[in-house]
Amino acid sequence: MIKPLLTRLAAGLALVGGLLLLGAIALSLTSMVGRRLWAAPITGDMELLQMTMAVAVACFLPLCEINDRHIRVDIVATVLPAGVNRALLVISHLMLACVSALLLWRTALMTQDSFLFNAQSVQLGLPEGAFQVAMLPGLTLMSVCALYQSVHHLIREDAPALIEEEGL
Amino acid sequence: MEGLTMGAVALGVMLLLLGCRLHVGVGMLLAGALCYLLVYGDVHALLYTLNNLVYARFSSYDLAVIPIFVLMGQFAIHGGLSATLFQASAKWIGHWRGGLAMSAAGACAGFGAICGSSLATATTMSQVALPELERHRYTKRLATGTIAAAGTLGILIPPSVPLIVYAVLTHTSIATLFMAAVLPGLVAVVGYFAVIRLMAVRSMTDVEASPRYSWAERLASLRDIAPVLVIFIVVIFGLYGGWANLTEAASLGAAACGVYALWRGMRWAGLYKSLVGTAEASAMIYLVVIGADLLNSGLALGQLPAALAEWVLGSGLAPLAVLLVILAIYLVLGCMMDSLSMILLTIPIFFPIIMQLDLFGLTGPEKAIWFGIVALMVVEIGLITPPMGMNLFIVQKYSHNTSLGTVSRGIVPFLGADMVRIAVVVFVPALSLVWLG
Amino acid sequence: VTTLRITHFLPAVASVQRQVLDPWCDELEARSGHEIRCQIYPSMQLGGIPSQLPDMVRNGVVDIAWTALGYSAGRFPRSEALELPFMLPAGGDEGSRIAWAFTQGPARKDFADYHVLAVHSDGGAVFHSRDTLIYDAADMAGLKLRAPTRMASRMIDALGASAVSMPPAQIADTLAKGVINGASAGWEVVPPTKLDEVTRYHTEPAAHQATPTVTVLAFLMNKQSYERLPDKARAALDALSGEGLSRRFGKAWDDAIVRVRAKVKNDPDQTVITLDDAAYNGMRDASRSVTEDWMASREGGVDRAALVRALEALVEQKEPALE
Ligand code: NA
Ligand code: NA
After folding, report:
1. How far is CA B103 from CA B111, B127, B135, B343, C91, in A?
2. Which residues of A touch B275 (CB under 8 A)?
3. Is some CB atom of chain B closer than 8 A to the CB atom of A120?
């Protein structure tokens, strides 16, 4: 019941990130065409792309975790008994939950600083803090998804021992 | 603590954590955090370094081409490009002995010119080519070995995610690296063709030839793959003809691939899958990138790369011997890790060493390009070395009732071809540098 | 022994490290009776991006950083006045004297969170062009020029060209492909970016003219790191920082400028153009709107008009010969 909800949230956020990615692509194409044909590049296209992509990538994070697609070294898993493997999975997802919570906290602090010190993009003078705030939901949801995965492996035995590689 | 000792401790802890099945990015990040704690003795510097970590990497202009290339590959997959490529090449060379396997390898090469990932190439080609190969009574060993090996063309032929990461780490031009990878990539295709031919002759009874097609049918098949050629040429010309930088060329390729996929019947469901697939693959890459970033700055904090380079220079080892040791380390690591993690982990350590060595009289910039291609080749082998070869897992999954053992035996001759090619690329630097002029 | 961790965004072989930071560190170590040891981390080795360097200093991730103020837009609003068009004299030494005095005086508030070791100028920008001889603003109409800072972009736009921003590493490649027609960049940028291989014409101000724009660089130290130092070490650091160090940076840039300029001038394929007074006045008047717009902004409660007046008075006092 929780998993479908998390998956939907994560997929929704990933979709938002995907649309931002499409936007970034459109932006760089517009800038390229403008520059070639009318000698009129979009001012600050690079910094706009950078800030947009930062938000997009943060939005991508939760889905990868809830679908358990992150890169892991599974060579040891092949020789360990199932119980140990389960314990390792509980720990590994818990560590990701902690690390992403830590990153969320620190990124939030940086965002606060950006507003406090009026950090701007170089060409357009856009507030960097506004884009950094938009990264926080992705980090939050990744932490929640990792916590879910950890608890899931703790209480359910049918969890797969090895990740499946597909859909790359 | 001295640089080398601290580096050894941090890398040891990291390998232990990775062995415990931690996410690779998390393991690297924790090992990097350990370096900060060892150097500073408190958490202050570490915490404030983390303030900047995520935004700094996520907003990197150079890395931004990765999701764009990933999306381009996704459009190619959901636009049915892999099947089109395979069918077209089968019409040209499918009737040769082993020709269908060669067609699969050729289609992988074509797909690799659009897609920057080996796993994506192996996945989509497994789905398209494995059933056909099995229908024509190719042995499972040859069929799975072919796809697993040729899947690595996804990163050998540009665009290539590991090369982008190498370029970012070493401040080398991505476009130049892509150009340098073209010829070695084609050599790889030739090598795989040779292996398939040899294997097909040996298993004479198993391999059934597919029908020979008329010239009219062959030429008609070109019409189907023409869009691929157009997309590739548009991207390459955009890049080298000077009207686009890499990000713009990638955007152009992704847009062209998207339009092609729509024309081939991709609808909302396909677009959704493409975006979601891009999200997952990109998130996977970026998590490792930020982990590696903290590890690398932690190691730099303890001066490990400099200390190691100094130690290697002082040891009096022949430059070539050092190079061979480094290559050997890659091959060992390749049995455990994936290509991207290997690049992110090793390049900051090995690159300063390589740049200090006198190898084949190459200049600094030449050496940076050449070593990038060599590193790409050796990490690519990691994808197909048992027991941990991602491509092996993928083809095994799509080949019914096939054991990992069968796939592993099937890959051995291709590994042989890879070794020969690596030797050629190492000892004939001109192969990677011919475009530099 | 206190270790001072110093970081910057250029490679270890760059002249800022070779010519200034390394020898400065050696002197500091000796003068402090070896109570201080420097550890330099080039190329952003400690992570982050150049715009985050001031934060890294403020938060104590490093003790000292060398950075361009313009990279961290919005953080040093008062010091931005130094980048205004045709404000400072050309030359590293002259510009650095003024930059130091201005950031110690009228713009002091920008640096409340830092112990400032030096603030210096890069000696000013030169217009490098591929195909067009730039004698005056009219020659710039329609050109696409790379700009190093936001202020430089506004100036280039005001002069009738269009500004494209990009990091130094991309300039030569983009120029060779004809994506841009030229670049506004200091002389010292020419050799590392191979700018002389893709441009032939170089337009610079005359000795008595102000430079089109400068890049302001600062050598910033964490306050606690400074206060923590033992007395003798702090005295050594004080003696080796301030206006003296700022001018030392400036002079190192001047050395590079003289060297590069001579090399370009002696190259028969290259042409160096010096602005005549009419062209100079035309450019200065055309870009006056940039300064006026800047003065009109009250963002962050900063009285920019007063800052410009103060800076102009300072320039008048230090460089009376400047037009
Ligand atoms: Na590729
Ligand atoms: Na492997």
Report:
1. 12, 14, 15, 30, 65
2. 14-15, 18-19, 21-22
3. no
